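Reference record
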Amino acid sequence: MACLAQRGWQGSFLVILPHTRMRVVYSDESGTGGANDGPLSAVTAIVLNLDAQWVPLEKQMREIVAAAPQNLLRRGELKGRFLFRDLRNQIAGANELLQQLLALPSQHHIQIFFSAVDRAGYDRYVRSDGPPLTSEQLSSHDMAFDLCLNQVEDHIQGFFPEEQVIWIADDTGHARHLRRTLDLFRQWQETDLTQLLPNSQIPLRRPFKSNIADTIYYGPSAESLPIQLADVCCSAIVGKLRGKAEGKEYYKPLVTQLNRPPAVLFAEGGIYDISWP
């Protein structure tokens, strides 16, 4: 039996029935604030086997956090952008802590999913080439989340079609849109596409339903070490894309675990380092 209980989280108590095979997605975002929050809206998700990976990962992360210099934590929490700032400022222990954390996905065979949208490029698209602006217009963050959601769904359907997925996200205030996105995504996955192309001679009904559970669960990242790990991974990948001095070095441990090479949508050519690895 797999059992997951979170206090203080929306969707506060969840028990998975016996014999249910379950994966849990933990996601974190960057570039959701104002102009000073960077040029990219990015979402990073890690996928854990609830029975095989969750407990050993949490155990090792607790050991790492307990041994870390407390001045590298923000209210007891791991924050990627602050850790990389401490690294640039040559704060003692920042290098070692980042190396320990970024080695975890490989050590625990954790898949990483990443999506990014250039905020300025997306804004130009919406204002010039995109659909008419409405009160429901997607933000660059919404778009990045949608892209990450599709990547995870494709992976689960391709490799673990019998398993269910619970999505746990940092509570960044985007809950309303993300729930709506999940509802629309599930409807699309279950649509008979023949209705959209009535003259097609090929059966177009999708042979599956979405594996992602109906509800996305939210809560403060301070209460979830896997979300904090997703945050640190996100900072490393974004740093590499932006060509920061430390970017490539700290990105390298993640290469083997990334579901696909990171790319940036709506970006003008040449401004991001999308080289692989």
In short: Residues 1-19 have pLDDT under 50 and may be disordered. The domain at 23-257 is CATH 3.30.420.10 (Nucleotidyltransferase; domain 5).
